[in-house]
Specification:
Protein name: DNA translocase FtsK
CATH superfamily of the largest domain: P-loop containing nucleotide triphosphate hydrolases
Bound molecules: adenosine-5'-triphosphate
Shape: elongated
Oligomer: single chain
Number of helices: 32
Organism: Coprococcus intestinihominis
Subcellular location: Cell membrane
Number of strands: 24
Pfam families: FtsK_4TM, FtsK_alpha, FtsK_gamma, FtsK_SpoIIIE
Distance between the termini: 117 Å
CATH architecture of the largest domain: 3-Layer(aba) Sandwich
Strand order of the largest sheet: 17-16-24-23-22-18-21-20-19
Family: Belongs to the FtsK/SpoIIIE/SftA family.
């Protein structure tokens, strides 16, 4: 037995050895013929490339033939075999057997052409389920079906009658019927049918239905509104006809018939409105008959024709001039509202009408202003006014701009002021000129205005409207001192302020070699790697049955864009839906699809580069594009996807919103803007206000002559700075109006050509207001900040004031609708979600950015944002440049005390803040400590009081404000300016 076993083992060992030898020799052979086998592989691949499509074609031909045979069979034309087959098909599928040949062919063709696609498999499965549900429903539809017959009966009945659900449908309905009854089974089957229908079509039936209903409701609403408007117009037409009729009646009778909705002037009430809603001439009169003593017109109205003719503009009889006695002191005043339809705004003025119907309100207002006779021109009238010197203050309380009307509210007209609006056009200039100038005021204050009542544009327009008079009256309140500064003797922070720094005699432009140069490594992407990625992209799309051709490749510093041209019939949405699969196949973190590229018949796929190139500011500033840019506010944005330098002009933007997640590159972007300006603009040409609630970002610019005031770090003061800017804007408009200039450029040009030296009219610089974190300001005084930003954004462009606002919180309560609407140019850096991207750009895309200066640049006028790799400037470079500028100043910049004071006043008057009362609890201690140590450093305060950086910096600012320490100058330590005794006196004085 043992011997048998051992001989068996030997035999096995021998056979194993033999096999090993055979394997070894075959491996050797393989090694020897490795070259050959590679060749064989290639040729096999070529063969398979050839045979695969041909094989598919043959398969389809066979399936077509089978389908036709089945078709013939089910219609009884298939001979004996066909009859048998038809019996089987009807038995199995019931009525659906008629559709079987078609379904078989279409299904097979679909499967073959979408081989490998998961989606196609899902669709095919869903289609099969759909068919089975139909079969089951057909079985259920048979009224004789009661769930008692056997499954075989189901087969036989369908085979014989060529209807019903066949064996398959019958079996399923049998199970469902016995479990849920007929109704329950129907619900389940229909539900499954719908689900498979959704999977087959990919359409969201119910959501669409909801949307459809929504659209229908909106349409109905619109129809309803149109109907209401039509009715209102008809009513108005009726009223006009009625009014025309009444014209022919004696006056007293006519008054009784005036419709209250059209006109209401109620002397006893606070306000009254005249609404002139149509272009047609109409007679609108006071509801109350005017008292006999004051029956003359204060408001004059003109027909369209008369508005264009200066001569025919005067309606009232000279002998019936309005009595100015009515402005006497003690007389009660009434506000008067005039609403002027928008179409009239081009023709408001009587004497020098603005002809263009699309003329802007400010144009009209400036025209109006010019119509008001100056003191010299209107001497005889002035005399009359002097005689009857009124004490009341007529006030243009507010203007309201609605989409249709401009409304002026004039307070201070006497109670019984009669209004005769005979014609369509009201001469506001006349009203303004008749308000006595000797009172020294057409009060432009909007003190009692409710913010919600008055749009910022309207406030600004209102102030613009009265500007010349205001300027006339306010100018004597300033007198020039020997130093050339203007002392503001007028009280109140709303007085127009002037930029009063001494002019910087000579500004030494910093040389570009203070900046680092790019290494000039160029793009690391080789042509081969680009070609490979392009091929991969094409193959990926092909594997999903989407035909595309890569037509172009643009290689940018951080991303490369592959331009794809889809084949005929390929939907763009299909390409977009494959973005995840592309990411997977290319093994990249994220891609952005631009579908389509604006102005091109191509879809752009932006793939991050493996090696990112840094775009150095110096390289951009040295580029021709930058050198050729004429504007002082031109700045280097970065390089676009094609590697081209992108240069933008803040003047044209005219305001810019920069938003992105923390660390995405906002501060670097702001620094590049500031640096671009420092390299291009003289401080006498461009000034900046920097608001940096984060404290650390912009303080390096302190001490530069370009700054109007030191960098503002206190959010409460920031609101004050914005208010100051609004006042400056209004002041500038007044000055423009005085010499008939339209904007800053024409003003400066005219001032330059003035034949005499004027103290009043000097060249003015452009002003850029940079806010590094809007969210911090909005937290402190949202309504004030929003209001000021909107007023500036709407009107500041012509005044040469531009806003650059950055925020890392792109939420709707920071970037409010109002701010968004008024700041048209945007830069979006990387954000965390599509929602944030939509808040900034009104579209997705920023969530796909890569960070580190990768941005979507969307200036005003561009259809779609462009992807740009932002310029980079390091802190060292900034320090080098700012140190250079400071070192080469002929005189230290003198910051305007007036501006500072005004900003502080505004901060104090701000309801949300009181700069004096909210000193930090460590303020006193920190002051004493710093004086004792003779060293002021934020880090030291942090360490000693164990507080955060922001709080320590704020305490330092408060100490600086109190005069304990000097301002921060670059990286140098602050000066200690008070002794301990002085500080104690200060503290005692402030308790
Ligand atoms: N254009 C750029 N090129 C290369 N790297 C950049 C660029 N911009 C920013 N970075 C990198 O990103 C870092 C963060 O940038 P930055 O400080 O500007 O972000 P931020 O958005 O201002 O962040 P935070 O809101 O927190 O202040 C920089 O230190 C730098 O390394």
């Amino acid at each position: 037995m043992a011997g048998k076993q051992s001989s068996e083992v030997k035999r096995r060992t021998a056979s194993t050895r033999k096999t090993t030898t055979t394997r070894k020799s075959s491996a050797g052979k393989k090694r020897n013929t490795s070259g050959k086998s590679a060749n064989t592989k290639v040729s096999r691949m070529q063969v398979s490339e050839y045979t695969e499509p041909v094989g598919d074609e043959i398969k389809l031909i066979i399936i077509l033939a089978v389908s036709i045979l089945i078709l013939l069979s089910v219609f009884g034309l298939g001979g004996r075999v066909g009859d048998k087959a038809a019996y089987l098909f009807f038995g199995l599928f019931g009525f659906v057997a008629y559709a079987l040949p078609f379904l078989l062919f279409i299904g097979s063709a679909f499967h073959i052409s979408n081989r490998g696609s998961r989606l196609a498999r899902i669709k095919l499965t869903a289609a099969t389920v759909f068919l089975i549900m139909i079969m089951a429903l057909m079985a259920l539809a048979d009224s004789s079906f009661d769930g008692t017959a056997s499954v075989l009966d189901g087969f036989l009945n369908s085979a014989a009658a060529h209807n019903g659900g066949g064996l398959i449908g019958f079996s399923l309905s049998w199970v469902l019927f016995n479990a849920f009854g007929r109704a329950g089974s129907t619900v389940i089957l229909v539900c499954l049918m719908l689900v498979s229908g959704v999977l087959i079509t990919g359409k969201r039936i119910f959501i669409r239905l909801g949307t459809l209903i929504g659209h229908m409701m909106t349409d109905m609403g619109q129809h309803f509104n149109a109907w209401r408007e039509k009715r209102a117009r008809e009513r108005l037409a009726r009223m006009e006809a009625k009014a025309a009729e009444e014209d022919s009646l004696p006056e007293d009778e006519a008054y009784e018939n005036i419709d209250e909705e059209t006109v209401s002037i109620q002397p006893k009430k606070k306000a009254a409105n005249i609404i002139i809603p149509s272009r047609k001439k109409e007679n609108v009169k006071s509801k109350d008959p005017a008292p006999a003593s004051s029956s003359e017109t204060v408001l004059q109205t003109y027909t369209e024709e008369s508005a264009t003719s200066a001569e025919t503009a005067v309606i009232s009889d000279d002998s019936k001039q309005p009595s100015l006695d009515s402005f006497d002191q003690g007389q009660s005043v009434q506000p008067l509202h005039i609403q002027i339809p928008e179409f009239m705004t081009g023709h408001v003025s009587g004497k020098s009408s603005v002809k263009a119907p699309s003329a802007s309100i400010s144009d009209i207002m400036s025209n109006l202003s010019r119509d008001i006779p100056s003191e010299a021109e209107s001497e005889p009238e002035t005399e009359t006014v002097e005689d009857k010197k009124p004490k009341g203050k007529p006030v243009i309380a507010r203007t309201i701009l609605s989409p249709d009307d401009l409304e002026l509210e004039i307070e201070g007209l006497p109670e019984e002021t009669p209004v005769n609006t005979d014609d369509t056009f009201i001469d506001i200039s006349k009203i303004l000129s008749e308000i006595p100038e000797t009172t020294g005021n057409i009060n432009t204050e909007v003190a009692d205005m409710q913010p919600e009542d008055v749009s910022p544009a309207a406030q600004a327009e209102q102030q613009t409207a009265v500007s010349p008079t205001a300027a006339r009256t306010s100018s004597p309140s300033h007198h020039t001192t020997a130093k050339g500064t203007v002392e503001d003797t007028a009280s109140g922070s709303d007085e127009p302020l002037e930029i009063v720094e001494e002019e910087i005699e000579k500004y030494e432009f910093p040389p570009l070699d203070l900046l680092d140069q790019g290494k000039g490594s160029g793009n690391q992407q080789t042509a081969a790697s680009l070609k490979q990625t392009a091929l991969k992209l094409q193959q990926t799309f092909e594997s999903f049955g989407v035909g595309v051709q890569v037509t172009n490749v643009s290689c940018g510093p951080a991303v490369t864009r592959y331009e794809l041209q889809p084949d005929q019939g390929v939907k763009v949405s299909r390409i977009v839906s494959l973005s995840d699969d592309i990411k997977l196949n290319l093994a990249v973190a994220d891609i952005r699809i631009e579908a389509p590229i604006p102005g091109k018949a191509a879809v752009g796929i932006e793939v991050p580069n493996t090696h990112k190139e840094m775009v150095h500011l110096r390289d951009l500033l040295e580029s021709d594009k930058c050198k050729q840019a004429k504007s002082k506010l031109a700045f280097a944005v970065g390089k676009d996807i094609g590697g081209q330098t992108v240069v933008a002009d803040i003047e044209k933007m005219p305001h810019l919103l920069i938003a992105g997640a923390t660390g995405s590159g906002k501060s670097v972007c702001i620094n590049t803007i500031i640096m671009s300006i420092l390299f291009r603009a003289d401080p006498n040409e461009v000034k900046m206000i920097m608001i940096d609630p984060k404290v650390v970002e912009l303080n390096v610019y302190n001490g530069l002559p370009h700054l109007l005031i030191p960098v503002v770090t206190d959010p409460k003061k920031a609101a004050g700075s914005l208010n100051w800017a609004v006042n400056t804007m209004m002041d500038r408009y007044n000055k423009f109006a005085e010499i008939g200039a339209k904007d800053l450029k024409s003003y400066n040009a005219r001032v330059e050509n003035l034949p005499y030296e004027s103290e009043q009219h000097k060249k003015m610089p452009q002003i850029i207001i940079i806010i590094d974190e809007l969210a911090d300001l909005m937290m402190v005084a949202q309504s004030e900040v929003e209001d000021a930003i909107c007023r500036l954004a709407q009107l500041a462009r012509a005044a040469g004031i531009h806003l650059i606002i950055a925020t890392q919180r792109p939420s709707v309560n920071v970037i409010t609708g109002l701010i968004k609407a008024n700041v048209p140019s945007r830069i979006a850096f990387s954000v965390s979600s599509g929602v944030d991207s939509r808040t900034i750009l009104d579209m997705n895309g920023a969530e796909k950015l890569l960070g580190n200066g990768d941005m979507l640049f969307y200036p005003q006028g561009l259809q779609k944002p462009v992807r740009v790799q932002g310029a980079f400037v390091s802190e060292n470079e900034i320090a080098r440049v700012t140190d250079f500028i400071r070192a080469h100043l002929t005189s230290q910049p003198v910051y305007s005390e007036t501006i500072k004071k005004s900003i502080e006043t505004a901060a104090i008057s701000s309801p949300s803040g009181a700069s004096g009362s909210d000193k930090d609890v460590y303020f006193e201690e920190a002051g004493r400590f710093i004086i004792e140590k003779d060293k002021a450093s934020i880090g030291m305060l942090q360490r000693v009081y164990k507080i955060g950086f922001n709080r320590a910096a704020r305490i330092m600012d408060q100490l600086c404000e109190a005069g304990v320490v000097g301002p921060e100058i670059g990286t140098k330590p602050r000066q200690i300016k008070m002794t301990m005794e002085e500080f104690e006196t200060y503290l005692n004085g402030n308790q």
